[in-house]
Amino acid sequence: MITLSALQMKDIVYIEDGTKIGSLTDIEINVDMGKITNLVVATKTKTFGVFGESREIIIPWEHVMKIGHDVILVKKNGQYPTLPVQEKEDSSSTYQQ
Q1: Can you say whether residue 34 is alpha, beta or left, with left for phi > 0 and alpha for psi between -120 and 50 degrees?
Q2: How many independent structural domains does the chain possess?
Q3: Quick check: pTM over 0.90?
Q4: Which of 25, 65, 79, 96 is the most exposed place for a label (fewest CB within 10 A)?
Q5: Is residue 5 scored above 60 in pLDDT?
Q6: Residue 92 domain-assigned?
Q7: How far apart are CA 31 and CA 39, in angstroms?
Q8: DSSP state letters, 25-64
Q9: Residue 30: which of 2, 63, 60 has the closest Cα?
């Protein structure tokens, strides 16, 4: 058995060319079937090696080939949907009476 926190410490890598995609941020589970359906992977695109935009890639569970000690290997078959990461509102600085 493996925990979500243990999975989040692993790099997500394409099995074909060894390119690092990013790190696992979440998983999607079909509760009716009791199975993992997708991995949610955070990526960072960089311009000039400095500025970056965070995005999330949804990888279908069927594309996961192997879970190792340090990496999760996925196949590079097709395009994965990407979603911009939305910054969470910090409500700690506002006080309503």
Answers
A1: left
A2: 1
A3: no
A4: 96
A5: yes
A6: no
A7: 15
A8: EEEEEETTTTEEEEEEEEEEEEETTTEEEEEEEEEEGGGE
A9: 60
